């Protein structure tokens, strides 16, 4: 009887470990997108990229990579959900992006130093030496830092920075 109970427990543990490792494998495969890659199709995709209107959205790695790949002007706004100045600046940012005449400028709202911070956003802040919320990092079309500003930016100042970043 004891052997049967031990066998059942071991069998259940084996099935649990198998299911766990299979789930990890599936998630990792999906995360790293381990599909076969045909580089000849990349040139077709690049030539067919339509003009994308300007947009201001919350950070995602996919949007960041896409903006860099498509050589877009990229505005990184590092914010915190507890920062009142950041919330006011966020309203200004939305107005600027809604009225922006340039095609393909992407603004990403990135949380740091708050409950929405992830290891990914923290690493991005370290990459650009951002240590304080309410910080702007503007990247030109080549992905190089065009400007870095800490603190509030008025509507007209932010518009001017974005206009000049596109002229490089």
Descriptive account of the structure:
The chain is of the alpha/beta class. The protein folds into two domains: 1-35; 45-166, Glutaredoxin (3-Layer(aba) Sandwich). The protein is built from six helices and five strands; from the N terminus they run ααβαβαβαββα. It has a five-stranded mixed sheet, with helices on both faces. Strand 4 (135-139) and strand 5 (145-150) form a beta hairpin. Helix 4 packs across helix 6.
Helices and strands in order, then pairings?
Elements: H1 2-32, H2 39-47, E1 55-58, H3 61-69, E2 74-79, H4 84-99, E3 106-111, H5 119-127, E4 135-139, E5 145-150, H6 155-166
Helix pairs in contact: 4-6
Could you name the key traits of this structure?
single chain, 168 residues, alpha/beta, Glutaredoxin, five-stranded mixed sheet, 6 helices, elongated
* Largest sheet: spatial strand order: 1-3-2-4-5
Number of helices: 6
Rounded mean pLDDT score: 83
Strand content: 15-25%
The CATH topology label of the largest domain is Glutaredoxin
- Please tell me what the overall shape is: elongated
N-to-C terminal Cα separation, in Å? 79 Å
CATH class of the largest domain: Alpha Beta
CATH architecture grouping of the largest domain: 3-Layer(aba) Sandwich
Compressed to H and E, one letter per element, the order equals HHEHEHEHEEH
Q: Tell me the helix content.
A: 40-55%
The CATH homologous superfamily of the largest domain is named Glutaredoxin
Cα-atom radius of gyration: 22 Å
Low-pLDDT windows of residues = 34-39
């Amino acid at each position: 009887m004891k052997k049967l109970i031990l066998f059942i427990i071991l069998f259940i543990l084996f099935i649990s470990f198998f299911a766990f490792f299979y789930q990890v494998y599936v998630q990792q495969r999906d995360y790293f997108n381990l599909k076969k890659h045909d580089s000849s199709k990349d040139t077709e995709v690049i030539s067919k990229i339509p003009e994308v209107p300007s947009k201001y959205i919350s950070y995602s790695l996919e949007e960041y990579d896409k903006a860099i790949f498509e050589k877009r002007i990229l505005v990184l706004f590092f914010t915190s959900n507890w920062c009142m100045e950041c919330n006011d600046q966020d309203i200004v940012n939305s107005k600027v992006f809604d009225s922006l005449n340039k095609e393909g400028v992407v603004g990403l709202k990135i949380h740091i130093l708050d409950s929405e911070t992830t290891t990914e956003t923290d690493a991005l802040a370290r990459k650009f030496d951002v240590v304080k919320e309410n910080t702007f990092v503007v990247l030109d079309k080549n992905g190089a830092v065009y400007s870095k500003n800490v603190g509030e930016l008025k509507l007209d100042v932010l518009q001017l920075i974005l206009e000049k970043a596109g002229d490089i």
